[in-house]
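task queued by scheduler; priority normal; single chain, no ligands, no partner chains; default sampling; output format set to structure tokens
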Amino acid sequence: MAHNEIAETTEKDFTKNWVNSSRFLFYLQVFVVIAFLLGGCFRLYQQRYPGKPDVQIQGSSKYVPDYK
């Protein structure tokens, strides 16, 4: 009876069962990579370029200058 209980606990133990632990670690790694990618994309979206600002340019410094 005691041998059966030890065998059951070693099968369910995370460190002893490499199939379950490797599957868990793989899915954890995939989740972490996706979380970092989505977090990075969201951060880039928050800090995006707001657009072309309306800047007053002196007339004499334009490509075709306006002289008075």
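post-processing summary
- The radius of gyration is 31 Å.
- The helical segments are 2-12, 18-46.
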